[in-house]
Design brief:
This protein is α/β, with parallel strands linked by helices. The protein is 38% helix and 15% strand.
């Protein structure tokens, strides 16, 4: 175990803090008593509306800027006495099919920028967000932290490279950095627009706007979906317990196929029409089923049942459809 200052009373930086997971993390940091939460986000997929309630507290400072730029981060660390950084900055997995090089480099560049600042003593602790995608398709189940890293996309390859960078800086420079590896998060605020939308929100939007749900391939690809609040809860608990240089899975010990998922969303939203079949995506991960043995040894780990989390999530998109008057 390691000794870290509590979040309460700290100035905390969240890169990608206007995004899906990042904005929920910002909310939780405020409730944990953070003195100030600084957010940097270029709004590539994030949205300022995700921070509306948090900014209303007067304890959030938002920079619409890019953590890939060293000058932008240098400025933030000159202006704020940051103690802990949570690195949520990334670009969506689907983006790597359109701009593979940039999807890779974003993940690596942001991590290296932060690690260099940490090495120079600009802040104390780094929590780096990895992804289950670094494992690729499961070669054994359940997938624990020792599972081979075999990324199938440049997004995942960039995340894997960033993980290796964190591990090497811990060994070389004794920085206090650790890695959390969430599996497939879902919940309110996940992007529902365009090619970079998640499977749950885009399916909900299609149904709620009179469209038809889609499945790529045979639909037997499985994912381990975890409700976003459960991820954030685990991350804040792990902050007090996970040793530097270590990685931990955050998931549900369960899996569901994409076909089952789309069927559940359709049923929940009262849709009984056609489900379109699309060609399988290249490099699509076929199976994700995680082991949570390590995280359960470290913290009191609580999970939202998938049925309850999905219902809450779809209620959110129903309300959003009414507010935004989706056509």
């Amino acid at each position: 175990m390691t000794s870290r200052d509590p979040i309460s009373g700290q100035c905390v930086l969240v890169t990608g803090g206007a995004g899906f997971i990042g904005s929920h993390l910002v909310d939780r940091l405020l409730s944990e008593g953070a003195r100030e939460v600084v957010v940097i986000d270029n709004l590539f997929v994030g949205a300022e509306e995700n921070l509306a309630a948090a900014r209303g507290t007067g304890r959030v400072v938002f920079y619409r800027d890019d953590a890939e730029l060293t000058t932008s981060l240098d400025y933030i660390f000159e202006m704020h006495d940051v103690g802990t950084v949570f690195n949520c900055a990334t670009k969506a997995l689907n983006y790597s099919f359109h701009n593979p090089s940039n999807a890779f480099s974003t993940n690596v560049t942001v991590a290296l920028n932060l690690l260099e600042l940490q090495r120079r003593g600009k802040f104390h602790t780094l929590c780096h967000f990895s992804t289950s995608e670094v494992y690729g398709t499961a070669v054994y189940e359940p997938m624990d932290e020792e599972h081979p890293r075999s990324p199938t996309t440049t997004y995942a390859a960039g995340k894997a490279a960033a993980d290796l960078a964190v591990e090497s800086y811990v060994r070389m420079f004794d920085v206090d950095a650790y890695i959390v590896r969430p599996f497939n998060n879902y919940g309110p605020r996940q992007n529902h627009n365009g090619l970079l939308a998640g499977i749950i929100p885009i399916t909900a939007k299609r149904v709620l706007t009179g469209g038809k749900p889609e499945i790529h391939g045979d639909g037997q690809q499985s994912r381990d979906f975890i409700y976003v609040s459960d991820t954030v809860d685990a991350v804040l608990k792990l902050h007090e317990r996970l040793p530097a240089g270590e990685t931990v899975n955050i998931s549900t010990d369960n899996q569901i196929t994409i076909k089952e998922l789309v069927d559940r969303i359709s049923k929940e939203l009262g849709y009984d029409g056609e489900i379109l079949r699309r060609p399988a995506r290249p490099s699509d991960v076929l199976c994700h089923n995680a082991s949570n043995a390590k995280v359960r040894q470290l913290i009191d780990y609580t999970l939202t049942p998938f049925e309850a989390g999905l219902s809450r999530t779809l209620d959110y998109y129903r309300d959003l459809a009414r507010k935004e008057q989706w056509a």
